[in-house]
Amino acid sequence: MSREMIDRLKKQGITVPTPIQEQAVPVIMDGQDVMGQAQTGTGKTFAFAVPILEKIDPSKPHVQALIISPTRELALQITEETKRLAPEGIHVLPVYGGQDTIKQLHKLEGTVHIIVATPGRLLDHLRRETVDLTQVEYLVIDEADQMLEAGFYPDVMDILDQTNPDRQSMLFSATLPSSVKKLGREMLRDPRTIHVKPEKETIGHIKQLLYQTTDRAKQDALMTIMHEHRPFLAVIFCRTKRRAKKLNDALLAKGFLSDELHGDLTQAKRQKVMKRFREADIQYLVATDVAARGLDVEGVTHVFNYDIPQDADSYIHRIGRTGRAGGKGLAITFASPKDKQMLSIIEKQTKQKLERRTLDTLSPGKREKE
C-alpha cells in the first residue's frame, strides 16, 4: 500500500485495519479474485475500495472499476466512502434510479474511472449505449445475498456479459447460501474465500432487552421507554411501509423528532431523511428492513424492534445498527403473544436469551442504568 493511501486512511482516523480489511486488501492487491463473507459495518467497503483506488490509472479516461450494490442508499454510501480516500484526479460516479437521467448522462460523458451502481439504472444506460464497460478491470458485487433475494440475478448476469472477461472480480456477501456460491462460480476465477466472524458472534456487546406487550399497547409502551431512555439516535424497525408511516405520524404528534424511511419515498426524500438523521436533526428513524439495508450511521445508541423481525438474520442485521465498531448499544424488542415462536427461533439461532423486562421497571425510582 502506498504511503499516500496510508496517510489518507490516517486522516479518516483509520490506523488499524478491521479483520476483513486485513485479510482482503493484500489478496486483492495481488490480483486474485475474492469471495468475501462479511456483514455491513465491518469495514468491507474500504477492503475493496483501497486496493482498487491504488490500481486505478487516472491518466486513462475510461471506466476502470465497477461496483454494484442492491440499494441506492448503499450505492451512495460506497460512493462517499470511496471519494473520501480517492486521490486527486480519480473520478467516482454513483448511478442509480431516482436520479435525473439527463444530468446522469452529462456526468457519464465526462471522465469517470469508478462507477458505483444499482443494477436497474446501469442496465438502462447500457441499453442506451451511454456507458461502456468493456475496459472494466475491477468488478465488485456487494451485498450479493440481498441482491439475489431482490431478484437482480438476470440483470447482474446481463451486466457481467458487457464487461471485460479478463477483469479481476470480487463478491461480498453477509451470508454464502448456494445461490451466492453459484453466482461466485459464474463470475469469479479460482477465488480466494475470505470469511470474517459473522455478526451473530459479535453482538454480545449489545445489551438486548425484551418487553412483552400486545399490539394494542405497543405504541404506548414504545413511547414510555423512549421517554425513559432518551436515546441520542435510534432506529425503530417496522414490518411494513404502512406501519412505519403510521408510527412516525404518531411520534410526530407526540413531539418526538422522528422521520420515516421506506420504499414509498422518492430518492430525494430518502437522501434528505438520511442527512437529517446523520446530522442528528432528527433522533428517531422509523424504518423498514429493506430501506435500512446497509444503513451505517455513527452514534446510533438504540435499536427498537417495534415489530419482531421475520427471521434471525434480520434480527442480527437490525440490532447491528447500534454498537458500531465495538461500542456499546442497546436493542429493545417488543413481542406480543403471537410472536412466541419467532422469538424462540431468534434466541436459538443467536444463542442468546433476551433479557425480559416489564414497564414496571421504568418507574422513576427504578430508572434504568444502561
From TrEMBL:
Record keywords: ATP-binding, Helicase, Hydrolase, Nucleotide-binding
GO MF annotations, alphabetized: helicase activity
Family annotation (InterPro entries): DEAD/DEAH_box_helicase_dom (IPR011545), DEAD/DEAH_RhlB (IPR044742), DEAD_box_RNA_helicases (IPR050547), Helicase_ATP-bd (IPR014001), Helicase_C-like (IPR001650), P-loop_NTPase (IPR027417), RNA_helicase_DEAD_Q_motif (IPR014014)
Ranges where the DEAD-box RNA helicase Q domain occurs: 1-22
Domain Helicase ATP-binding: 25-194
Enzyme class per UniProt: hydrolase
Residues annotated as domain Helicase C-terminal: 205-365
Motif residue range(s): Q motif: 1-22
UniProt-listed Enzyme Commission number(s): 3.6.4.13
PROSITE patterns given in the database record: HELICASE_ATP_BIND_1 (PS51192), HELICASE_CTER (PS51194), Q_MOTIF (PS51195)
Superkingdom per UniProt: Bacteria
Protein name as catalogued: RNA helicase
Organism field: Halobacillus kuroshimensis
